[in-house]
């Protein structure tokens, strides 16, 4: 059974990101409509980034190394509440999320990606891995992370990882 929850309900948006309705995740998104997706890179104080390895039964890109955390925004959620939920569910990382943590919003054909960056003092063993969706997590130095991150969708993970790092450096 796939790890993906196809019974989830999403809010749908128009091109100006105005809410225009809802639908089930299992249904195709109609042209001119968009759903929201959140992604995060979490860095430690050794300038390493946490990556997750996707479960082998994920519908898309099973077994691939991915961002620290991410997923679809459910109906009624903001990007901030969805990012908080995804980190708590996937990693046991109950970290506050604010609009200032969001560094980019990128539109695509039928979804919009919201990107976040965080810093933590946690070690790998502090995270609680949600084994239904992830195999494991690990901190990587930035060059090593880039070799593990392959573009698995339309977002260029190498560009986003650098943008996340720059975002955190500019906030200091």
Automatic annotation (TrEMBL):
CDD domains listed in its UniProt record: NUDIX_Hydrolase
Residues in Nudix hydrolase domain copies: 33-168
Family annotation (Gene3D superfamilies): Nucleoside Triphosphate Pyrophosphohydrolase
Keywords assigned: Hydrolase
GO molecular function: hydrolase activity
Coiled-coil segments on the chain, per record: none
Annotated SUPFAM superfamilies: Nudix (SSF55811)
Source species: Candidatus Levilactobacillus faecigallinarum
Protein name in the entry: NUDIX domain-containing protein
